Amino acid sequence: MIRAAMGSAEEGEIMIIDGVMILWFALTALSVAFVAIDIRTTPENPVMKWGFILITLYSGPFGAFFYVLGCREPLPGLHEQYVSARWRQVLGSTMHCVAGDGIGILVGAAIGAAIALPVLADLGLEYILGFGFGWTIFQALFMRDMAGGDYGKSLRMTFVAELLSMNCLMGGMIVVSTLTWAGVPAAHDPTYPLFWFRMSLALMFGFIVAFPMNWWLVSNHLKHGMTTVRPAQPVDAGTAAGDMAGMKMEGGSSLNMAAVKAPTPHPPVSLMAVVSFVVLAAGLLISWAFGGLSG
Fold first, then answer.
1. % of the chain beyond a pLDDT of 70
2. Total domains, the chain
3. What range defines the domain where residue 182 resides?
């Protein structure tokens, strides 16, 4: 796969990387097929379903593992209780962020490589497209029902959460995307599998870095996590109180987050915004310190 582009690299190392990538892409294909088929019967919001398919496309078997562990209904009727755990709510929030932002980031990376942008310009394009698509499409447009169907209100409601999460995602990604296989042309050419393997690793590391910020966002009701969508049915007063834990939605309708009075976030949003930019700056600084921003 990458022999021609690596030139003088040792043959043994090339064969190892080739073997790892063949195994990775094969497992990814199987994982995506499993999630895409199985998630059809999971009572989850359609946007979140697509999010899990995308995250599995980025992260292969890890995405499928977290779908089963974090969202797949263990037994009929238990989805609400299953996804109500805080860590599963945060998993859904982070997954939603990475799935949407990842589309723009990958498009930006491919465009930047195709027109040979300098590293910083390439990262800037990835950030702009990732944030733009994640905020305006995957967050505000697809989840506008949570703002009462008002797209403008949805944009305002989701801006801060998207910004903070995106900063952390990108801060983690920068380190991996700029430093792994830095001197290997195939890793920076979208026509080679190594390019997509490198970006998959970067998105996975970005997911890990963004998880703590999403924990704070979910804990302070600034982002939603997992949801439950079931066909409309009569509401039993004895069970209605437990539905909110998993954000249950009847008949495909969405919880109107705009109508929910959330407590004042702690720590304050301003402080967490600073933290997110520090994470982004730290990613750039680490990359610069090890020569990842040259070129």
1. 85
2. 1
3. 3-289
